[in-house]
Amino acid sequence: KHGATAADRSQVLILIPALKDADGAIPPFCGFPCVHRMLFLNRHHTENAVRVSNLLLAWRLENPFNPSHCRIGDDEILTIRARGAKHATRFSSFLIHQNPAKNQSSILNLTDELAPLALGYIADPKLFAVGREIWTTFNTGHTAGPNRLFVMRVFPSRGSPVECRYPRRQPIEKNWAFFRRDDSWFSLYSCNPLRILKARGAIDSGVMEFEDCFPREAPAPSVPRWSIGTPLCFVEGKGRFIVHEKLRFLRRKIYLGRAAELAIGRDHADIRVSSRRLAHSWLSLLGSRIKHNPSLISCTYFSGLSRDGDEMLMLYGINDVGFGAATMPWDALW
């Protein structure tokens, strides 16, 4: 009905009951009942979602995926990963600035721009708003030793990368969700155990050292080990974001999304996560013939979340070979 044949649908129905989460447990709502809690985003291409998609497609990048978006007034900033040159073996990260009111449109290859700084490979750029500024976070991908993670202001002016350090970090770090509160920098480091970090010192030093803030050392039994997907988007004091649920089948993974919300009090914080799974389409669950990551069956990878009036604009990669955009009311994701 939505681009998948009867054979495609039957394969998904056969596959889904056998799925397990990354810890080996049968996840809630798995098996045939999960079909009724699955929300397919390819059915929600609203006018603005299509417009943002067209902004990205206009640059004719090869193999674009995992986009992110932020808007302040008439200025729209987007990031996306794509091949920097035809048949390039590694992907580049791109920064796009659009302002139709001023007839401005530009694209910057962040990988090439930051190469003289010798930071390492530039991977996974994601945008988030800090007041009237737009920042990006990125990391240096998979490396032999510990990789590096950065934040950098990209609007209204472009700043220098600031490295983020944490003594209890994992060897490979990718998705921290940054925010600023009372002139201090914080980051949601993990969902379970729920761990929020706070930066020490000034950001203009080029390095931010983070320490635990509101730590919850013991994993909450009611919250699976979901990973952070999009940056935080604060609405009415609560941080909205999409987490990734990783299901396992035959030693490979399927990435799906779930809406999540972070509430922060004076001395505590809590996360609630929706029971609805998010994916691009039935057909996307089967993966693609081109496999950039052999450990994946399929992946709806959520990389951007921004406010679109009374709704939320979600941007995501599809199996590392394409991207999608959807706009929906936040309540509809629960």
Strand content: over 45%
Rg over CA atoms, rounded to whole Å, is: 19 Å
Q: What would the average pLDDT be, to the nearest integer?
A: 86
Structural class: mainly beta
Residue stretches low in confidence (pLDDT < 50, at least 5 long) are 1-34
* Major β-sheet annotation: 9 strands, mixed
Number of strands: 23
What is the approximate shape? globular
**In whole angstroms, how far apart are the ends?**
24 Å
H/E series, N to C?
HEEHEEEEHEEEEEEEEEEEEEEEEE
Number of helices: 3
Percent of residues in helical segments? under 10%
Report on the structure:
The chain is mainly β and 334 residues long. 8% of the residues lie in helices and 48% in strands. The protein is built from 3 helices and 23 strands. It has helices at 6-15, 47-57, 110-114; strands at residues 20-21, 38-40, 62-72, 75-83, 91-99, 104-109, 123-130, 133-139, 149-155, 162-165, 177-181, 184-191, 194-200, 207-213, 227-228, 233-235, 238-249, 252-264, 269-273, 277-279, 296-308, 311-318, 322-328. The strands form 4 sheets. Strands 1, 15, 16, 17, 18, 19, 21, 22 and 23 form a 9-stranded mixed sheet that branches. The protein has an 8-stranded mixed sheet with strand order 7-8-9-10-14-13-12-11, with no helix packed on it. It has a 4-stranded antiparallel sheet with strand order 3-4-5-6. The longest helix has 11 residues, at 47-57. It is globular and about 45 Å long. 38% of the residues are buried. Residues 1-34 have low confidence and may be disordered.
Short overview:
The chain is mainly β. It has helices spanning 6-15, 47-57, 110-114; strands at 20-21, 38-40, 62-72, 75-83, 91-99, 104-109, 123-130, 133-139, 149-155, 162-165, 177-181, 184-191, 194-200, 207-213, 227-228, 233-235, 238-249, 252-264, 269-273, 277-279, 296-308, 311-318, 322-328.
